[in-house]
Amino acid sequence: MKFTCVSFSPLCFTVLFSFFFLFGCNQSASDATEAVSMLTAIDKWSIDRITVNDDTVLKDGKPVPSFDGITIDRYMSTITFEEDGLLVGDYNKGTAKTELKWKMVDDQVIISAMDSTVQAGEWMIDQSAIRPDAFVMYTSTQAYDFPNTTTVSLYYKK
């Protein structure tokens, strides 16, 4: 079956408009200024899912069984980016709020401990992974499967 639009019928217009609206409105940040603006514009970002080495291990607040056995049971369920470089996170287990610092370095947001003497792992957000309605932050660690490196990604949405 061949479909052609000889003239712009209402159906063709609707299809084209929908395509551009869906794919044009959720573009990733084009520069550092836009990336920071997108992150700080939302009062509270909520966790959507967590992946370990690209396998989903948490979705909709529920664990997803995985073959490698790594589970994530404590995570920041909501986070807020303050314009002054403060990141405030609320954990899912009801523990006290966590305060971290964030800064834009080239085309990446780096999240780290407030105290520079603490040797905890950093989390990164690539500028290309920041959209007006979602972003992905990730870290690489050997803590789960030494000496192998494990990548943990947290997907947040508004």
TrEMBL record:
Signal sequence range: 1-24
Top-level taxon: Bacteria
Swiss-Prot/TrEMBL keywords: Signal
Protein's name according to its UniProt entry: Lipocalin-like protein
